[in-house]
Design goal:
With about 70 residues, the protein is α+β, with helices and mostly antiparallel strands. Helix content is about 50%, strand content about 35%. A two-stranded antiparallel ribbon has the order 1-2. A hairpin with a 2-residue loop joins strand 1 and strand 2.
Amino acid sequence: MKALNLAGIALIVAGGLGLAYGGFSYPTETQEARIGPLELTVQDRETVNIPVWAGVAAILAGALMLIVPKSG
């Protein structure tokens, strides 16, 4: 029972963060060229957008996990 409640709270928090920020970005490094001891790398930022429906769905799923009575 306790694990289900924690999972519901985690979904609500994750959905709220997804709605608040709308996405996240992270750096990626690619090796462009290697000439002898010299190595040329390029660092880019990849962005992952989180759809609004995914944030709302996570909040609703978490709320359902907390509200719906558990049989046991």
